[in-house]
Amino acid sequence: MKFVDRIDEATRLKDSLVREKSSLVVIYGRRRLGKSTLIKRILSDTDVYFLADRSESQYQRTLLAKVIAQIFPDFDKLTYPDWESMFRAINYRTDKRFTLCLDEFPYLVEQSPEMPSVLQKLIDEKQLKYNIVLCGSSQNMMYGLFLDSTAPLYGRTDEIMRLTSIRLPYIQEALNLNAINAIEEYAVWGGVPRYWELRENRSSFEDAMWHNILSINGALYEEPVKLFQDDVKDIVKTSTIMSYIGTGSNRLSEIAARCNEPATNLSRPLKKLIDLGFLEKEVPFGVDEKNTKKSLYKIADPFMAYYYQFVVPNRSFIELGRHLPIKQALSAHFSEYVSMQWEKLCRDAVTGNLINGIVYGKANRWWGSVINEDKKPEQIEIDVMAESLDKKYLLVGECKWTTQENGKQLTAKLLRKANLLPFASNYTIVPVLFLKNAPKDDEGNAMLAEDVIGLLK
Q1: CA-to-CA distance for 136 and 52, rounded, in angstroms?
Q2: How would you class 377 by CB atoms within 10 Å of its CB: exposed for 0-12, middle for 13-18, buried for 19 or more?
Q3: What is the C-alpha to C-alpha distance for residues 315 and 247, in angstroms, rounded to an integer?
C-alpha cells in the first residue's frame, strides 16, 4: 500500500538522527499505526533495527548481537553478560554515527528492569557515538518509562513522538476512493494503516468487512482484546464497559447500572480508556466538563465503534457462520452508524478552521431543553456548534448522511432551533448544512463530503 502522511513525524525523526551529537528518540502509540514502518523507512543500510520479543534477556542479547554482526563483523562471537557491556561494546566498535533501533522496547524492560537505568548512565556520560531509537506499543509503559518524572530516562530524550491515527483524507489517497466512499470506509477502518492494508487486499469494501471483521477467522475479529492486552489489566471489565457504551449506554449512571457497580468504581477505568484514545467524553457546547452531569461517553475510534455495534452483539451468529442476521443488522443500521461518524468528522472539520472568511474554535454538539414559541419546554439537539474566535459568530450545523435533502427546509428548521438557544442573541447565527449529497435547492450554505475532507487535510 502507498505510504501516506507521517510527514511531520518523518521529518522530526530524520532531523534527530543527523544532529551533531547522538540522540535518544522515543516513538510510541497503539498497535497497527505504522510505527515500525515509519522507522524502517528512515533507517539506512548501515543502521541496526531489532524487534524484541518476550524471550529472556540473554537470548535477546544473542539475537541482537547477530543483527549487529551484519554491520560489525564478528560482533556475535562474544557473549555479553549484561546490557551495559553490550551497549559499551557497540560504542567501542563504531567509528562513525549510526542508529540502533530497539522496537517493542517494553518487552526488553519486562525481562531486564535495569535497562532504563543502564541507558540513563550511558546517556549521562555523554560518550555514546550512536543514536538510539526506542519504540513501543504499550502506551502505559512507554509513558511511565519516559514521561514520569520519577523514571530514570525522564528528561533524557531528544524527541518523543506519540503516533496517533491518520486523518481521513489519507485513506482516500491510499485506497483511491471518492469522497463518499472514503467517509464510509473510514467509519469502519478508522485511521489505522494496517487495517487499510487488509482492506486493500480484498476485492471490495463489503468483502473486506466480511473477510477481516465479520468472520471467526478474520484478522480483526479479536482485535480489541489484542489492543487491550498492551495496556489494560482487567480485559474482561474493559470489554464489558466498551460493549455497553458501544450499544447505547452513554451516561455514567447507565453504564454503572448495567455493570451492576457504583458509578465511583468506574471513574478510573473510564479515564484510562479516554487516556488510551478508545473513549471520549462529550459535553454540550459551552458547558464546562468539570461542572456538569450532562457528560456522555462515546467510543472515540471508528473501528472500535463499528466493532462494538456490529460484531459483539452478533458474536453467536459469527461463530456459527450465520450471515443473514448480520446482513440484516448492517442493512438496517449501517447508514445510521456512518451518519454518527459523519457528525464527528464535521465537527473536526469546523474546529480551528476558516469557513467563509471566519475562523472558528472548538466545535461540539449541543443538546438540552429550551423554551419554544409556545412558552413550553422542548428538547432540541444541534449536531455542530462553534463560536468564532472573535466571539461574534455562532456556526450551527445540521448533518445528514442521506440521499438528497431539501436545503431550504433543513436551514429553516436549523435556524428555528438555533434561535431558541438562550445565548443565541449574543451572536450572528451562521447556519451550515453538512450533507452527503447536494440538496435539491442549494442556498450556498451546504458542505458536501469533498468539502469536509478538504477541511480535514
Answers
A1: 10
A2: exposed
A3: 14
Exposure letters 146-179 (e unless 16+ CB within 10 A, then b):
bbeeebbbeebbbbbbbbebbbbbbbbebbebeb
Return d(Cα 19, Cα 130) in angstroms, integer: 11
Q: Which three cell numbers stand for residue 144?
A: 511511565
pLDDT at residue 365, as a whole number: 96
Each residue's pLDDT tens digit, 218-240: 999 999 999 998 888 889 999 99
- DSSP secondary structure, 270-314, as one string: HHHHHHTTSEEEE--TT--GGG-S--EEEE-SHHHHHIIIIIGGG
Instruction: Concatenate the DSSP letters of all residues of 166-233 into one string.
Output: PPHHHHHHHHT--HHHHHHHHHHHTT-HHHHHHHHTSSSHHHHHHHHTSSTT-TTTTHHHHHHHTT-S
Q: Is the pLDDT of residue 4 over 70?
A: no
Decide: 274 and 305 in contact? Cβ < 8 Å: no
Per-residue pLDDT tens over the stretch 307-355: 999 999 999 999 999 999 999 999 999 999 999 999 999 999 999 999 9
288 to 104, 181, 190, 293: CA distances (angstroms): 39, 36, 29, 10
**CATH code matching the domain that covers 348-455, chosen among 3.15.10, 3.40.1350, 3.40.50, 2.40.50:** 3.40.1350
CATH H-level superfamily of 7-162: P-loop containing nucleotide triphosphate hydrolases (3.40.50.300)
Q: pLDDT tens digits, residue range 60-114?
A: 999 999 999 999 999 999 999 999 999 999 999 998 899 999 999 999 999 999 9
User: Which of the following CATH numbers is that of domain 170-337: 1.10.3720.10, 3.20.20.20, 1.10.10.10, 3.30.200.20?
Assistant: 1.10.10.10
- Where do the domains of the chain lie? 7-162, 170-337, 348-455
Query: Considering only CA atoms, which of 121, 62, 55, 116 is closest in space to residue 91?
Result: 121
**Same topology between domain 7-162 and domain 348-455:** no
Q: How confident is the model at residue 404 (pLDDT cuts 50, 70, 90)?
A: confident
Do the beta carbons of residue 166 and residue 3 sit within 8 Å?
A: no
